[in-house]
Each structure stands twice: as C-alpha cells, then as structure tokens.
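Pipeline run #58 for the internal structure catalog. This entry was flagged by the ingest filter as a single-chain record with no existing model, so it goes straight to prediction. Upstream metadata was stripped on purpose; only the residue string is passed forward. Reviewer on rotation: M.T. Logging verbosity set to normal.
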Amino acid sequence: MNYEQRMLGPLSIILLKYVYFCPFVQLTQTEISEIKELIAIPKEIVIISHRNPDGDAIGSSLGLQLFLEKFGHRVRVILPSEYPDTFHFLEGIEGCVIFDQDRSLTKDLISKAEIIVCLDFNSLDRIDKIGPFVQDATCKKILIDHHLDPEPFADYVLSDTAASSTCELIHQFILELGEEDKLDEKVGEAIFTGMITDTGSFKYSTRPETYETAAALKRVGVDDYMLQDSIFNTQSEKQLRLLGHCLANRMELVPEYAAGIIALTKEDYVDFNIQRGDTEGIVNYLLMVRGIEVAAFIREQPTIVKLSLRSKGDISVQEICRNHFNGGGHKNASGGAAYAKLEDIIKRFKKVLPDYVTKRIVPAQ
C-alpha cells in the first residue's frame, strides 16, 4: 500500500482512481471475463440513459438492447423523459419505458433487474428521480460513457472522453466481449445513429477509431445514407419556420469574441408550439457564420433557462458551462441551466466570454 492509500483510506482510493484515470477508464481482462460470465445465462436487464435523450443516448441503448437479447436476456430500456420523434425508425424504440409516463413500471423493472447498464451519462443526477432507485439497487451495474469525471457508482466502467460517442464505445464493448458475430444490421443502425448525431455527421469529435467503427458497421449492412435521410430530412413545416424565426429574429452576433447567440422566449414556445426535439440542431447554424467560433442557444422555459453551447478548436464550452451555468459535457459541445431571467443569462454569457475567447479586431464595415 502506497502513501496515498495509507493516508486517504478506502473510499478516497476509489475516488482517486476516477480522478487520476479520467478521462480514460478501460475494462480490465478480469472485468471483461466477469461480464462475459454475467451475460452467459439469460437475466433481467435494465438499460438506462439520460433525461432529454439524444441520438447517442437512444442509439447506444437500443443497440445494446438488441445485442443483449441475442443471449436470451429480457431487456428493457428506461428513459427519464420522452424521446424526439426523429428516431421513431429505430428497431425497438416503441418498447422504451418513459419514467415521466410510468414511474411505477420504472421502479418495478429496476427492483427486479439482475444487471443495470447506464449509458451516456456520468452521474446519477443526469437521470433525475431514477437516480436513487439505481443507487439503492444491489445488482451489478455497468457504466459506459464518454463524458468527463464519471461518478464511482458502477461495478464496471468503460469511459473514454476521446470517443466520438457512447455508441462508439458500445461497439468497442461488443468487440472486447469477443461477440462481433452478434453485430448485425439492426444493432449497427442504432450504433451508427448515435455516431452520426454526436459528431454532427462526422464533422467533429472524431478519431481514427470512429471511422474504423463506421467501416465495421457498413460491412454488416448499415445503410448510412438511409440513416442520414431519416434523421435530418424528416423535419416538419413548423420546425423549418421555427428555424427561420431563430435566424431572422433571434440571432445576435458578438464578432469581437467570435460568438453567436440565439435566444428563445417563453412566448416563442407558445407561438410555435415548440415540443421536444423541435429545436434540435439549431445551435449548429451559428457556427456556419464566417468568423463565429462559439455558439449559444438559450431557451427560456417556464421555471428555468437552458443553454446549449458549441465551439470550434480549443475553445472549451465545457468549462463555460461548468463554471457559470451548472452544467458540463464535452470540450466543444456542452449544456447548462440556471434559475434566472433570460436577459440576465444572456448578459452573463457575454460577460464571461472574455475569460475564454481572445478578443478579435473586427474590421470596420
């Protein structure tokens, strides 16, 4: 036992492991063997992802569900809140249990689970009121995620912040188990969906392994054109009119700090009848403007103001969200929220920009 272990005690040793080894926690060969033994016999398995599930949360959950069902397991996916209709085409999505709609069934499934798999979140507060149920569950827990600083609540952790998506790590997980032969077109479609959405169609957060995974999925028959078309070319007239409103009436540029802001009011939500998923991707349009490197999409909701931040290059919106807006995420894609007035949040965002972005000289118009 080294000095740190003697001085800090067992709990701190666990915490130190996560501090020192983040952003990269791999499964050991012993852990892989234990997981293989766990899934060798059919069990009751629950897969859980975060509130306001995106393509990566949904794709990783459904991809892993379809994979595990090949072993004869009874698998249910639980989501804290409703998923965007965009992903209705994915195999198995209609069977997802929505906590907000059926809390009793959620609690019952977790209480009976023999394995709980947590995907695309790093702390139990990301699953809101489901968190205590997972915390109290005595079964084995597996965490697969690509966000910073995973909390030590799981028995097995696969965490890599360099991964494009949790879906990419699901593919890695399948390979590490030696079960590549169970990777078929439907499993692949779910995994590919998360990779497409979390990378903005492979425009950011990629690495060689990302493309190697994409190639492997293509080889099992995944039609990536169909996926792109299903995800991005199925918007309603309302969504396009909302986008036009955002760009024409709600966009503000701060060129001296290479920033763009789109802010929606509570009245906008009423006027356009904005529902979950209707605003997906709007923040990215700001980064299409020449010279803009930081994008902020700020939404005023009944009791809270939410932010989605995106950036290019070395500008860390993760630090902005963590330090000023009670949030976090990835270096170039993060989110946060605050209980304040919309105009105050916009002012706060502008005020902190100089701490993270070098001031530019803006040519005279």
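catalog note: The chain has 14 helices and 13 strands.
catalog note: Residues 3-21 form the longest helix (19 residues).
status: ready for reviewer M.T.
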